[in-house]
Amino acid sequence: MSATRPSATQSSHASIDYSALQALPEIWPIAAHRFGNVVALRDNYSKPNAVLTYTEMNQNFQQFASGLQSLGIKAGDRISLFADNCARWMIADQGCMAAGAVDVVRSSEADPPELAFIYENSESSALLVENLKTCQKLLPLLDPVAIKFIGLLSDEEAIADSPVPMLNFNQILAAGAKHVFTPPQFASEQLATLLYTSGTTGQPKGVRLSHRNLMHQMNTFSDVLQPHPGNQALSILPTWHCFGRTVEYYLLSQGCTQVYTNIRQIKKDLQTHKPEYMASVPRLWESLYEAIQKQFRDQPQSKQKLVQFFFKWSQRYIEARRTAQGLNLANLNPALSERIVEQLKCWGLAPLHAVGDRLVYKKVREALGGKLQGIGERGWFFGHAPRKFL
Per-residue pLDDT for 62 more than 90? Predict the structure, then answer.
């Protein structure tokens, strides 16, 4: 089943409707047709670096899928994917799904016994790993007979005396280029991926997500996100993390450029790439908030008092505005008289808030790139910046 491509008369920021599709891999040919030469994936910290347009990304997805089929993968087979955030992870992930397979995802940094358990418990028949280091720590714990092949997401050469057929990333792509790809017949209830829990309270448990589960996210994220093609999105959450993963799928489905970063480079990348979007977790913003607060504390007392003055009155302005608009979670149904009073407060405090914005908050936004429109935390998106009045 295919979706109707959006008409040329649609506004550039209108979300593409994928509701007619059955499965996630069906999105990418449509996105490639619509966004073509827009950069889809930018990975500056992996080796080798990668910059892929939507056309190239879609080609890589299909070629990787074709490579997996040439190695004997069939629809419904399960493939363990033990790797971390990078462009090649996305290619392997969507390559697995495009082949009709189910990928079983976990970080390469997890303990080897845990990874071995996940491989066996998920009934995987093949293994994709980040690099030789991950492979070498896992192989002694697995039965070679239970592994059709091992694929590396690196360009490293295979282990010479490996008991299992082994190919690197480019060899899988090369095999795909020579193989005639067979598109699978997707059904919405078909299993797409298995995510395993951390195992902190016992052995990890597999969570089943169907294509219908993933497509529901693709078709409802537009309620809170309306990105424009070419918007920048920083990717820092582990891509096997369910929330970060689905946000990335959605932003890519809408023509955004996904820029991979890490905890060491994020402050620099915020200013370099000036992203509009980023899926994150509270701990990251707590760290950035503390760094900002430290800069405030390092200022002379007179400046610190000025900053605190604006914070105090901006806080009251925001609370009054939320109540007036019926958006105060502690008071969602204020009386009309209360709304009017809070609106009057809003008007009275607006000039102070505007001065605070010009002198203080604008500088903080600029330190974060200056363009953030949505930052995701625990499934919620907030506009403009992590502090409510910034």
Answer: yes
Whether residue 364 is predicted with pLDDT greater than 90 in this model: the reply is no
Tell me how far CA of residue 351 lies from CA of 273, 314, 354, 363, in angstroms. Answer: 32, 10, 5, 18
CATH number of the structural domain 24-34+46-221: 3.40.50.12780
Write out the residue limits of the CATH 3.40.50.12780 domain(s) in the chain: 24-34+46-221
Strand partners for 258? 41, 233
Question: Which string of b and e fits 218-240 if b means at least 16 CB within 10 Å?
Answer: bbebbeebebebebbbbbbbbbb
Place of tokens 């040329």: 8
CB atoms within 10 A of CB 171: 16
Nearest 5 degrees, angle CA 273-CA 275-CA 276?
155
Q: How much is the average pLDDT of 89-99?
A: 98
Q: Identify the pLDDT of residue 386.
A: 37
In this predicted structure, the answer to whether residue 331 has a pLDDT above a threshold of 70 is yes
> Model confidence over 248-284: pLDDT tens digits?
999 999 999 999 998 888 888 888 888 988 887 777 7
